[in-house]
Write the structure tokens for this entry.
Amino acid sequence: MYRLLVSIIGLIFLSNFSYAGDFDTRQFNLKVKTDTWGVEFREYTRSNRSHIQLERYIDKWKLGYRYDEEDHKTEHRLRLDYKLLDNNHFYVTPRIEHRYYEGSKDDYSRLRSAFGIKIGNVWAEITPMLHFGEGKKEDLSIDEYQSKVGYTFDIDNKVKLKTFIQHEADSRFNKTNLFFGTTLEVGF
């Protein structure tokens, strides 16, 4: 009961915080998963973007397919993640993904790796990304960064609420996007 009460108070506090004027948008995620499969739904405020993602978990691997829509752009994204390190304090998760766009937008691939630290329920990560493909410089330099700081509320054995602030930046660390996100994750 105490944990649920603290989670509700935290949600009220974070909900008020998330509507601060500094954020470009807000991201809301619902993720339902088992030990071997997952599905995620995502919606944004101040944007017409949304996606659905299907995932398959095999040992330390995660295979995913994302269908993403925004205004007149439709993207199909294939991704492969690997848990290289996760020792309850540090984690490293490399990912390769291919982004295929319907229409005239150029397709490309990204190589990225999340480097994170966890202390209790607080976590932070930085994710540098390299782009490859049509219209991209093939120079092996970092093209963009994502950094996140967050807190995970353990509501129940199978229910978690993850809250985070995500900062996105170009290769020179100039801000391209800043948003507050929440993920309600339900396990079966």
